[in-house]
């Protein structure tokens, strides 16, 4: 009986494994080229990021991190670049709160450097200066979203 309990406990150990990282979607638009290259360059950068996740077969999950960057030079849009960086993760043995945190913060943290490099490469290929995005604290963003959802739930109740 002790062996059975031990083997059942072994099956409950949390498991996390990265299966694949890939680009799901990629776009780049430079609506004012080539005229934009003849102007003095003083850009303003707007970054929008989003995550979504979907359970696949069994304990496999797809997490998609979307980074959208709009760069304006004065009032004119110099370029718009977007990447959907995705990953397939095997995750099992976690309670609901841990699973939510893993999918909402831990996995996007893994994907971000890939998305950042892809965007930088894309922008440079468009003949614009390198786009060096600052690191993002996905744990803090996750905590803010939880607080927002809790406040919205209390407001509705």
From TrEMBL:
Transmembrane segments: none annotated. GO terms for molecular function: unfolded protein binding. One of its GO terms (cellular component) is cytoplasm. Keywords: Chaperone, Cytoplasm, Protein transport, Translocation, Transport. InterPro entries: SecB, SecB-like_sf. The keyword Repeat does not apply. Pfam families: SecB. GO terms for biological process: protein folding; protein tetramerization; protein transport. It is found in: Cytoplasm. HAMAP family: SecB. Homotetramer, a dimer of dimers. One homotetramer interacts with 1 SecA dimer. PANTHER family: PROTEIN-EXPORT PROTEIN SECB, PTHR36918. Belongs to the SecB family. One of the proteins required for the normal export of preproteins out of the cell cytoplasm. It is a molecular chaperone that binds to a subset of precursor proteins, maintaining them in a translocation-competent state. It also specifically binds to its receptor SecA. This is Protein-export protein SecB. It comes from Metapseudomonas resinovorans NBRC 106553.
């Amino acid at each position: 009986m002790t062996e059975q309990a031990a083997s059942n406990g072994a099956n409950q150990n949390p498991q996390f494994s990265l299966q694949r990282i890939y680009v799901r979607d990629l776009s780049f638009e430079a609506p004012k080229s080539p005229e934009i290259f003849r102007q003095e360059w003083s850009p303003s950068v707007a970054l929008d990021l989003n995550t979504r996740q979907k359970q696949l077969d069994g304990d496999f999950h797809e997490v998609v991190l979307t980074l959208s960057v709009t760069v304006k030079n004065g009032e004119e849009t110099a370029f718009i670049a977007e990447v959907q960086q995705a990953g397939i993760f095997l995750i099992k043995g976690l309670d609901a709160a841990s699973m939510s945190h893993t999918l909402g913060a831990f996995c996007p943290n893994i994907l971000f450097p890939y998305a950042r490099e892809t965007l930088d490469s894309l922008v440079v290929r468009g003949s614009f200066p390198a786009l060096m995005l600052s690191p993002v604290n996905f744990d803090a963003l996750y905590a803010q979203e939880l607080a927002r959802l809790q406040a919205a739930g209390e407001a509705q109740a």
